[in-house]
């Protein structure tokens, strides 16, 4: 596996990469509170199938630049980061996958730049409109999303997550049915990253400038890009309602894959299964990409 540094949208992004440089590009977007390492297993698996697999640290995370301005984390900027990364990696289109916040960003990239996305795989988080509808109408989803209120509180969230040696931050990685799924070394690496000045606030800014009370920023309905949603039926943050509603917002080929017994950290909890499903979707839908 390689570590790359790519200039895109005015920022320097640290990326992990595997696979032949001339292979079709698979771009993998992480969620909160993680980093590129969350895709380590999938990077190697996709590379073994001839893909050039790349996972960036999103803006504000890990080894990527961390703008101090809260407004720098607007969805419009996050989308253009991804579009620029695709182009600056030398590709005209890619196979896109995202988890958690990476899913929210990926839905918007696929909506606003469909020409750049050959296939789209969302992990854990379905279409933003489906999630918004569930947050408005489904009491179960409102309960699952209640943590967002704290994350939007400037200063308070940082205080809570940093207290007692970042205990509450560490607890996030242990939620769900497989509390030991994320290796301890990876958790400590994440905590070290978030202990750097401004880094935890940068990650929380995603919530503060993008999430309204009624849900996430919208992506257009009627996507025609081949799309799959992988969702664990024991996910403590995202319930069944939004997962099942997502089909109504996708016009192209679509499937919902329910990973029974899995929680939120799908790449760690079900590494082989997630990798197989990604390869399967790419192979069955993609024309050759550059």
From TrEMBL:
Domain of life: Bacteria
Alphabetical keyword list: Hydrolase
Gene Ontology molecular-function annotations: hydrolase activity
Domain AB hydrolase-1 intervals: 27-271
Protein name: Alpha/beta hydrolase
Hydrolase listed as a keyword: yes
PANTHER family: EPOXIDE HYDROLASE
Upper taxonomic lineage: Bacteria, Bacillati, Candidatus Dormiibacterota, Candidatus Dormibacteria, Candidatus Dormibacterales
Hydrolase is among the record's keywords: yes
């Amino acid at each position: 596996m390689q570590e790359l540094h790519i200039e895109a949208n005015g920022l320097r992004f640290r990326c992990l990469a595997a696979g032949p440089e001339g292979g079709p590009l698979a771009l993998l977007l992480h969620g909160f509170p993680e980093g590129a390492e969350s895709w380590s297993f999938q990077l190697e698996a996709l590379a073994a199938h001839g893909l050039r697999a790349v996972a960036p640290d999103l803006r504000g995370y890990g080894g990527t630049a961390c703008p101090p301005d809260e407004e720098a984390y607007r969805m419009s900027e996050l989308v253009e980061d991804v579009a620029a990364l695709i182009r600056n990696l030398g590709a005209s289109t890619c196979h896109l996958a995202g988890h958690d916040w990476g899913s929210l960003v990926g839905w918007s990239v696929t909506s606003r730049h469909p020409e750049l996305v050959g296939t789209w795989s969302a992990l854990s988080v379905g279409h933003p409109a489906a999630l918004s509808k569930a947050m408005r109408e489904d009491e179960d989803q409102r309960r699952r999303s209640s943590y967002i209120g704290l994350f939007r509180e400037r200063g308070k969230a940082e205080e809570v997550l940093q207290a007692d040696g970042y205990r509450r931050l560490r607890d996030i990685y242990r939620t769900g049915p497989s509390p030991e799924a994320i290796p301890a070394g990876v958790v400590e690496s994440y905590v070290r990253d978030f202990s750097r000045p401004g880094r935890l606030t940068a990650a929380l800014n995603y919530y503060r400038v993008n999430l309204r009370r009624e849900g996430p920023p919208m992506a257009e309905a009627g996507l025609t890009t081949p799309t799959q949603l992988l969702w664990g039926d024991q996910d403590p943050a995202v319930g069944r309602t939004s997962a099942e509603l997502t089909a109504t917002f996708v016009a192209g080929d679509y499937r919902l894959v329910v990973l029974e017994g899995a929680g939120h950290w799908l790449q760690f909890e079900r590494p082989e299964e997630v990798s197989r499903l990604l390869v399967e979707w790419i192979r069955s839908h993609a024309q050759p990409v550059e």
